[in-house]
Amino acid sequence: MADAAEPLVSAASARSHTRNDAAERTGLGFKSGFVRRLVMLVVVVVGSMIFKVITPPPVKELNSPDGPKVTAPRIAMRDGRYLAYREVGVDREAARHYVVHIHGYGGSRLLSLPIPTEVINELGLYVVSFDRAGYGQSDPNPKRSIKSDVEDVEDLADRLGLRPKFYVITTSIGGYTGWGLLKYKPERLAGMALSSPVVNYWWPGLPKSELTKAWNTQRTGDKISLTITHYLPSLTFWYNNQKQFPTATVSSRDGITAFNGKDQEIMKMLPKIVSPEHYKEVTQQGEFESKCRDLMVMFTDWPFTPMSLENPFEIPVHVWQGTEDYLVPANLQKEVASSLPWVTYHELRGYGHFLNAYPGYPEKLVRTLLEDSNKKFML
């Protein structure tokens, strides 16, 4: 049986089909190219918007035409920055003991440890407090780290002639500089007291059960804020200033409700007893280079942990902690202190976070530190 004849296609019909196919392919190519360009445009626009939102505003440079003016005494650091400082107590030349106070989150040189004047005179104390980098009238440090803050303290002490050794008293998040001094410059220390030093939830070595216990006491905003600061530090400023999601206790308007009754009373009282100059200056250069840098240094990975420290110079070290401190869980503080046999741990029942404002506490702290130092010196 003969094969069926194939249908014949005319040349004109073939040319017509070819033109239609080419037009169809050209149209599809045009459409896909347009879509790609549109997607790229959207990505660029959205990326630019996100970048603008998460990027902190520029620093308000000190002594610039539109910036804050410098009125406090300042000392040059090794990298050319300047730190503002404040001296209280007896004359430096007549002092029996030098004390450097390191303020906490949102603090300044104007929030020095309120030791009664009569105690300062009796003990012969010279006390210097300073604005940490980016706070108040101190220049910011874009490369701020635990070690750079330690170097700032050393430079300050050297320029003021606080030799051979000096005492250090830290408050809250200023404690990371205290631990740093014990790590990098222990030979300069006569003794140290840390008041409510903040604990990093990501320090290796803390028991998981105690971490879970402490973490479960934190508010949702604190959990999110700390997690973002640890894993995505570049988003710290944005998250703590946005209004759509719960923020950290230290940043939220209702944060005061997280503290115990005594701390709440202190927080309400502070504007009446603290210099208005403090509130005017504290973040005048911007929150990013002051408060946010604090959080980023404190809650990202450390080059060491306090639990790994040694104390070859037998420096007296005291840690003070309130049992009702919401910001720093007492169970974690106790774990840190108990891992260091050379640390004397003081747990204050019923006390909250703002220990410096509790009646009698500053005097008790400084007397305890000096007495311990004298005992070690006598031995």
TrEMBL record:
Residues 1-21 are annotated as: Disordered. It comes from the Eukaryota. It comes from Ceratodon purpureus (Fire moss). It holds the Pfam family Abhydrolase_1. Signal peptide: none annotated. InterPro entries: AB_hydrolase_1, AB_hydrolase_fold. This is AB hydrolase-1 domain-containing protein. Residues 99-355 form the AB hydrolase-1 domain.
